Amino acid sequence: MQTQYVVLHRPGRAWKEGVPVLEQPGLQAHVDHFRVPAHQALLFAMGPFLGSTAGGMAIFKRGASREQVVQLCEADPTFRSELLVFEILEWFSPQLNGEPKATLAP
Length: 106
Hints:
With 106 residues, this protein is an alpha+beta fold. It has helices at residues 27-39, 66-75, 77-80; strands at 4-11, 43-48, 56-60, 84-91. Strand 2 and strand 3 form a beta hairpin. Mean pLDDT is 83; it is low at 99-106.
């Protein structure tokens, strides 16, 4: 079984209440920061949750190490400015198309 890493981003102490997520000061630096791993094919998907204070997430592809994920998150300008905080979770995603297939219990 190979796990993937999911990063949950949530509003930090510098988050401006009532300001939509895409209008938060400094958020563009976060987007730019995560473009690098996206272009390096380390990310499966990323983006904000709907709602002004819901945060967002990034799902890393299989093969990305926890150390890589931690380094990327700690170097994120919005983490350093306390606009966002992050939590790293291990995630098992069975391959439903192709080998190995997981048996999903009813």
